[in-house]
Amino acid sequence: MAEQDWKANKRVFAAVSLPTLLWTVVFFVVPMAIVWFYSFGENAGLNEIHVSGTLDNYKRATEWLYLGIFGKSFAVAALVTLICLIVGFPVAMAITFASEKWRPWLLLGIMLPFWTNLLVRTYALMILLGQQGYANKGLGALWDGASWVKTLVGLQPLPTWEPVQLLFNNFAVVFGLVYVHLPFMVLPLYAALDRLDRSLIEASLDLGAGHFRTILRIVVPLAAPGIVAGVMITLIPALGAYLTPDLMGGTDSQMIANVIERQFKKANDWPFGSALSFILIYAMFILIALQSMRRKVPEID
Amino acid sequence: MALFSRSPVAPLEYSRTLWMRLWVGAVMVFLYAPLIVLMIFSFNDSKRNVVWRGFTLKYYDKALNNDALIEALVNSLTIAALATIFSLILGAVAAVMLWRFRFPFKGAVDGTISLPIIVPEICMGVAFLMFFAKGLHWPTDLVWPLNLGAITIAHITFCFPFVTMVVRSRLASFNREQEEAAKDLGAGEWQMFRDVLIPHMRPALVAGALLSFTLSLDDFVITYFTSGPETITFPVKVYSMLRFSVTPEVNAASTILIILTVVLTAIALKLQGVKAIAETH
Question: What sign does the dihedral A13-A16-A19-A24 (CA atoms) show?
Fold first, then answer.
């Protein structure tokens, strides 16, 4: 029995479709539409916004300042995604090929941080990276160790360790975003690798390819859909990240979400904030369209 | 001897090679060390998160006697519970609709329902801010729990698509002959739904509930925009504490929340088993 035509059972169809459709229209489509309309408006007075159909907000968004912030947000999100992919791929491999007994626990180990409150995790990382936190102490100990080794071989010792600023800069933002988004990358990668036909890997190894070459030539191409899914699942939230750059970044590490927030709170320029929001949404759509295009290409060949 | 009795590592047993183990171990340390340090320092008898000065429970005492913090926590848990119940209903019903019926504009409906998953949090927050403040002139001075209405509506909107996604993938494995058998045996639509379909969806419903509850409890950005000045949730409260004065009270409150997450996970595991939960993600 395939899918039923809605006309065949209108009563049941109405019962299962109306609640969700109504909810989605009233509480999702309408709010988004309001933002869209306001993006063509201008401030008139302190609390009044006049929707005049102007394109000034979009014109302003193409100023160098804002283009730079968009570019920077993309660069940060792309870097974070790349690091997550490099760190997460071996983990996903390890989970896939772990024994039956261990696999669920390893998965749980990856998922538990994903379930833990984002703010709590960001705060925890801030304690660790603080000026006198353990990351700095660890680096200091390494430095002292290096200095000791140098004196041991008769060289001048290194100058005394100065705590480095690990927080409130671009490094902290990238580090924090990787910390937060790593589980997003590992889970889809695992899902893709788990479906892999293992005999292909065995065949490659039997035919004399090394492990590294097998991974590069067999595993990666076969797991490509999962890799693309993982990249998208990491890239999209990283691009719209607000909390990490806000708490861990410095004055120059603002990402696009922080600029949008400022329009709605401090700057009180709702129409411009609306325009920026929709530009961000359009960027997401373009990314998703690119992904679905990529999926169709191999079928044409 | 134990060293020799170990079976040799087969080519595909990647997780038994040394460098793989080191890598996974390092990633686990990376993921958990900050949380463990935070939890340890919540018992530290010092104002700053730097040096260990002895064991104390006084910051738990302070946190638990901080009325604003407790109110925020109660608000958050209430919102999460309400959002979970409504998301389960809306999400499951939407999944059944998409799974069972063929109807015009199905692709568009499917896409719109899953949009809240893709749209950045900040954009949804902004949309709810405008919707409640300008569109509805939603009153901000209602009594508890009515003052949580706007936030709860926002949370349901971004939680239920996840439930739909999880339930839908579970329904794909449903054998439709069971449905016919139930009908042949005289079950009506409702009875069929209650006694055949819901038991089949159960693992997905548990996973969906866990997902909605944690997503709702976790959310800061959307709540920050939706909530009026009078209503605070736990993440919003912790955020303002972090912004203005970092005290070990935040550590204590965070530890309570981490433990809550672990307990919730344990309950879900007890109900469903580790494999089922792991596979729904």
Answer: negative
- Determine whether the interchain pair A128/B34 forms a contact, defined as Cβ–Cβ distance below 8 Å: yes
Residue-level pLDDT at B4: 45
CB contact under 8 A, B31 and A179: yes
Which residue positions in chain A have pLDDT lower than 50?
1, 299-301
pTM here is 0.86
Q: Is B211 in a helix, a strand, or coil?
A: helix
The DSSP output letter for A196 is: S
Look at residue A178 in the predicted model and tell me its pLDDT.
95
- Enter the ipTM: 0.84
CA distance linking residue B187 with residue B171, whole number of Å: 19
Q: Which residues of A touch B213 (CB under 8 A)?
A: none
The model's pLDDT over B247-259, given as tens digits with 9 standing for 90+, comes to: 778 888 889 888 9
Beta carbons of B101 and A13 less than 8 Å apart: yes
Contact between residue B96 and residue A1 where contact means Cβ atoms under 8 Å apart: no
CATH of domain B59-279: 1.10.3720.10
Q: Write down the pLDDT at residue A234.
A: 92
* 3-state DSSP assignment of residue B102: strand
Please check whether residue A176 is in contact with residue A248, taking contact to mean a CB–CB distance below 8 angstroms.
yes
Domains and CATH numbers, chain A: 76-295 (1.10.3720.10)
Residues of B in contact with A277 (CB under 8 A): 122-123, 126-127
Contact B118, A38 (CB under 8 A): no
Measured between beta carbons, which residues in chain B are less than 8 angstroms from residue A284? 118-120
The token pair at B168 is 């839908």
Query: What is the domain partition of chain B in residue ranges?
Result: 59-279
